[in-house]
Amino acid sequence: MPAVLTESSTVTCGHGPASVSTQGQSKLTVANARVLAQGGVAGKAVSGCVTQDDTNTGTLKCRLVAAVTTGAASKLTIGGAPVFLDTLAGTTNGNLGAPPPPPISATAGQTKLTAL
After folding, report:
1. What is the per-residue pLDDT across 60-71, written as a single tens digit (0 to 9) for each?
2. Can you give the three-state secondary structure of 48-72, one letter per residue?
3. What is the Cα–Cα distance from 30 to 5, expressed in whole angstroms?
4. How far, in Å, are 8, 46, 59, 65, 115 from residue 29 at the CA level?
């Protein structure tokens, strides 16, 4: 069963050591870390993306999470919003040209709480 993501989890843009700043919900915590739910990842800042802006090639560094496309729990919610699982994937506003950039991904970093 997939692990639930918290503010202590690692969410990356897929281009190396970049990280996504996340915002958890205060109603549910795991090991003193707030659980991530809908709204806690999309639109958040990406820092440390190794891609460099290049006007000649059109490449753009990832700066924001554009969308979360998968990874929302179907059974566990906080205030009606699904929590996010370590199956999380999505896109950023970065551009590497073709092929499309790798999706954002996550590592829960905890095994105490799992969900469907």
Report:
1. 999 999 999 999
2. CCCCCCECCCCEECCCEEEEEEEEE
3. 9
4. 10, 23, 38, 23, 14
Cα 101 to chain centroid distance, Å, stands at 15
Amino acid (one-letter) located at 14:
G
pLDDT in tens, 60-101: 999 999 999 999 999 999 999 999 999 999 999 988 877 776
> What predicted TM-score, i.e. pTM, was given to this entire model?
0.91
Cis peptide before 82 (omega within 30 of 0): no
Spatial contact of 68 and 90, defined as CB atoms under 8 Å apart: yes
4: region left, alpha or beta (phi > 0 left; psi from -120 to 50 alpha): beta
